[in-house]
Amino acid sequence: MSTIQPGGRATGRALSAFTIDLDVYSGPYEGLLALILKDELEIFEVPLRELVTLYRNTNPPTPPGETPGVLERDTDFVDSATSLVLLKGRALAPAHEPDGEEDDEGPSAQDLEERLVTYLKIKRGADALAERLAHNACLYPSAHALPPRPGSLRLSKDRLAKSLRRAIARTAEPGVSHLGQITVTVQELAALIRASLLHGPLSFEDLIRDMDRLRSAVAFSAALSLAAEGRLTLSQTEPFGPLTLTPGK
Amino acid sequence: MTDGNGYESTSQPDAATPSAVFCIEAVLFLSPRPVALSTILQVTALSEEEARAAISELKERYSPRYCGIVLREVAGGLQFVTNSLCSALVERFREEARPAPLSGAAHEVLSCVLYLGPLTRAAINAARGVNSDAVVRNLLDRNLLTEAGRDQTSPGAPALLDVTEDFLLAAGARDREDFPTLEEIVEPAEISRVRERIKGQESEHPRMDEPIRDPEGG
């Protein structure tokens, strides 16, 4: 069941003011989108038709030009709602599984008939099940939780000491003997890149021209770190093309 | 014999030895989960006959007509639950809303597994005609479905899904047999209508089982 929030009935406002109250979610519409994108709410659980109806009820049509911002807001909603339809469609589409002859020729009429009859039975079974689950949802069992018996709380000193040792002991340092000596650091090459950038944009290929593979890799890592800090910009006009480092602003 | 509350009672309080009814009532009162008859027999040291007679009396005493607490047989055991008439009051007292109902898709998946299962995820998808992986994940999270073995006949031996004890509890069912069969649920006339409709489609489009070809391209 869905309701419209009292504060939601106003035209010309931003989409961020659109609040919804569905069985699966209650709150700002944009929050719903965020939860879906973060996979914290399953898209298939969201009744899209109900959502669109809510929006239409909350935002009745107005004559063109009467309320500024309505067109943009409606466009935003249509844009996001179509994305939700697409997402839901993809989530529900069965994975393509080649299945011998059927894949080539499609299901036969008889096969289709059996499938539909099976689905009909499942559907009716689901309806009966929904009714049964709803009826039983209002029966509450005892809330008693048996407390642990005192005997099970009794701990020997030795066992406690052993547990404590295990909890506070440092794990053994992993061995590094198999690693070669560190000859170059990201910091060193970051300093080198920053110094080189003082003269203007720099080609990454030029930068690593005289470096071995290890130094080249570390230089790339240093460039990424500097880019993440905003100290430089990485640009590449085409995939696998030359990489240019430009000083950050 | 009738006790002070007007119930037929075979059990009388005795300071030294509690009656079978008292024993079973106490055990059930303490347990939030259903208690199997075997457990009751083990704990109370009653004979099966004594226990069954006491349970029968308890069922009468804790029937929805007389009491705010109801004794029900569910998930292979016995359990005290509140009377459904008191549900609103219980929810208010516990300051908890009733859990949101499952979606239609979730009911369909449960129905698939209950009636056709144990099933693999692929079999559920095939039965419903849509991808149900997300619904299955949700039902596994809610402990209404569980992985119960592997389908050794399929490539990769995918997991077989089955309903759980929590599902039986949620449905108030003693066991899997406590559900009506699909034949009882679906009207034969409805199935006939579907078959006729498909046959009608078939006669209108006799080549529906052949690939669609471009009329010009052949």
Largest interchain contact: A-B, 51 and 65 residues
pLDDT < 50 stretches of chain A: 1-12
Spatial gap, N to C terminus of chain B: 89 Å
Q: What's the quaternary structure here?
A: heterodimer
Structural class of chain B, by secondary structure, is mainly alpha
- Name of the CATH superfamily of one domain in chain B: Winged helix-like DNA-binding domain superfamily/Winged helix DNA-binding domain
At the first level of CATH, the class of one domain in chain B is: Mainly Alpha
Structural class of chain A: mainly alpha
Question: What is the CA-atom radius of gyration of chain A, in angstroms?
Answer: 31 Å
Sheet with most strands of chain A: 3 strands, antiparallel
Helical stretch tally of chain A:
10
The total strand number of chain B stands at 4
Brief sketch in words of this structure:
The complex is a heterodimer of chains A (about 250) and B (about 220). Chain A has about 250 residues and is mainly alpha-helical. Helices cover about 50% and strands about 5% of the residues of chain A.
What does this structure look like?
The complex is a heterodimer of chains A (249) and B (218). Chain A is mainly alpha-helical. Among the domains of chain A are: 6-92, no CATH class; 186-247, Arc Repressor Mutant, subunit A. Helices cover 50% and strands 7% of the residues of chain A. Chain A has helices spanning 29-37, 48-58, 70-92, 100-105, 109-136, 150-153, 157-168, 186-197, 204-207, 213-228; strands at residues 19-21, 26-28, 202-203, 232-236, 243-247. In chain A, the strands form 2 sheets. A 3-stranded antiparallel sheet of chain A has the order 3-5-4. In chain A, a hairpin with a 6-residue loop joins strand 4 and strand 5. Chain A is extended and about 75 Å long. Mean pLDDT of chain A is 79; it is low at 1-12. Chain B has 218 residues and is mainly alpha-helical. Among the domains of chain B are: 20-93, Arc Repressor Mutant, subunit A; 104-181, Winged helix-like DNA-binding domain superfamily/Winged helix DNA-binding domain (Arc Repressor Mutant, subunit A, Orthogonal Bundle), CATH 1.10.10. Chain B is built from 10 helices and 4 strands. Chain B has a two-stranded antiparallel sheet with strand order 1-2. A two-stranded antiparallel ribbon of chain B has the order 3-4. In chain B, strand 1 and strand 2 form a beta hairpin. The longest helix of chain B has 17 residues, at 188-204. Chain B is elongated and about 80 Å long. Mean pLDDT of chain B is 84; it is low at 1-9 and 207-218. Classes of the chains: A mainly alpha (249), B mainly alpha (218). Chains A and B meet through helix 5 of A and strand 2, helix 4, helix 5, helix 6 and helix 7 of B.
